[in-house]
Write a structure and sequence with these properties.
25% strand, AP_endonuc_1
Length: 268
C-alpha cells in the first residue's frame, strides 16, 4: 500500500507555527506533496526543511515569497527533476517530481489566474506548455512499465460538483469554460484520471479549499481544486481517498486541507 498526501500549505513558515509540524509527525503517508511553500530552504527551520524520517526536495520560486513546491518521501528518490522543460516556468516554483520504484510522483502548483489580467495570461501559457509535457511524461513512463501521479493545487474546478457556488463563479478564474475544457483534455487526451472523483463519482466535493472570508469553511462552501491526477493504471489501484478537513475553523493551519489517497500497488 502506498499512501500519498497533497496539500497547499499557504506559506510553510506560517503553517509550521499553526499545526503543520504536528500533522506531519502524525501522518501515515509515504509521500507528501506541498504547494505554495513561499520560502527558500534556508528560510525554513531545520525541522521543517529536513524533517526527521523524510527525504525532502524543495523547488522554491525565483520570485521571493511566491509559489514554491516540495516533495517529501520516506525513501530516497531514485531521481529528482525540477520544472517541466519550459523556460518561462523553470524557476517559478510550480513543479517538481521524483522517481520511486515503478512510479513518478510530482507536486504541482498551477497558476491561479485572474480574469482580464496578466495573471490569467500566465495561467494560459502554463497550461499550453504543461499539457504536452503531461502527455509525454505518461508515455515515457508507460514505455518503462511505470505509473505517474501528479498531485497538487490545480486551481481548476472541473465540474459543477467541484465547487459549492458554481453558478456565481462561471466567469471567474478557476471555473472558466476554457479552463475546464483544458482539464478535460488532461483526462481524455493525455491519459490521466481524477482519482478522488473516480472514487466518489456522485458526491458534491469533497472540497479541499475554503476562503478565509466569511463563513465559507463553516458552511462547507468550498472548491475541489487539490487533485490526485494519475495514469490510469495507478488510478485503478486507488482504494481510499480522504480530505483531512480540520474539525473547526480555529484548528486550520492552511486555507486548504490535505487530500490523502491510498493505492494498493499489489492490485491489478
Amino acid at each position: 500500500m502506498l499512501t500519498v498526501t497533497s496539500v497547499n500549505v499557504n506559506g510553510l513558515r506560517a503553517a509550521a507555527k499553526k499545526g503543520y509540524v504536528e500533522w506531519l509527525a502524525g501522518t501515515a503517508a509515504d509521500v507528501v506533496c506541498l504547494q505554495e511553500v513561499r520560502a527558500e530552504p534556508g528560510q525554513l527551520p531545520e525541522a521543517v526543511r529536513a524533517p526527521e524520517g523524510w527525504h525532502a526536495v524543495h523547488a522554491p520560486a525565483a520570485a521571493k515569497g511566491r509559489a514554491g513546491v516540495s516533495v517529501l518521501s520516506r525513501r530516497v528518490p531514485d531521481a529528482v527533476r525540477i520544472g517541466f522543460g519550459c523556460a518561462e516556468f523553470e524557476d517559478s516554483g510550480r513543479y517538481a517530481e521524483i522517481d520511486l520504484p515503478g512510479l513518478t510522483v510530482a507536486s504541482l502548483y498551477l497558476p491561479s489566474g485572474e480574469v482580464g489580467t496578466e495573471r490569467q495570461a500566465e495561467k494560459e501559457r502554463f497550461m499550453a506548455a504543461f499539457l504536452p509535457y503531461l502527455t509525454g511524461l505518461r508515455e515515457r513512463a508507460a514505455a518503462g512499465g511505470r505509473e505517474v501521479l501528479v498531485c497538487g493545487d490545480w486551481n481548476i474546478a472541473h465540474r459543477e460538483a467541484d465547487l459549492k457556488n458554481w453558478r456565481a463563479n462561471r466567469k471567474k478564474a478557476g471555473f472558466l469554460p476554457e479552463e475546464r475544457d483544458w482539464l478535460g483534455r488532461v483526462y481524455a487526451e493525455a491519459g490521466y484520471a481524477d482519482v478522488v472523483r473516480e472514487l466518489h463519482p456522485e458526491q458534491d466535493g469533497p472540497y479541499s479549499w475554503w476562503s478565509y472570508r466569511g463563513r465559507a469553511f463553516d458552511n462547507d462552501s468550498g472548491w475541489r481544486i487539490d487533485l490526485h491526477v494519475a495514469s490510469r493504471g495507478l488510478a485503478g489501484r486507488a482504494v481510499k481517498a480522504e480530505v483531512e478537513r480540520a474539525p473547526s475553523h480555529e484548528l486550520r493551519w492552511s486555507d486548504h486541507a490535505p487530500v490523502t489517497v491510498s493505492y494498493d500497488l499489489a492490485a491489478g
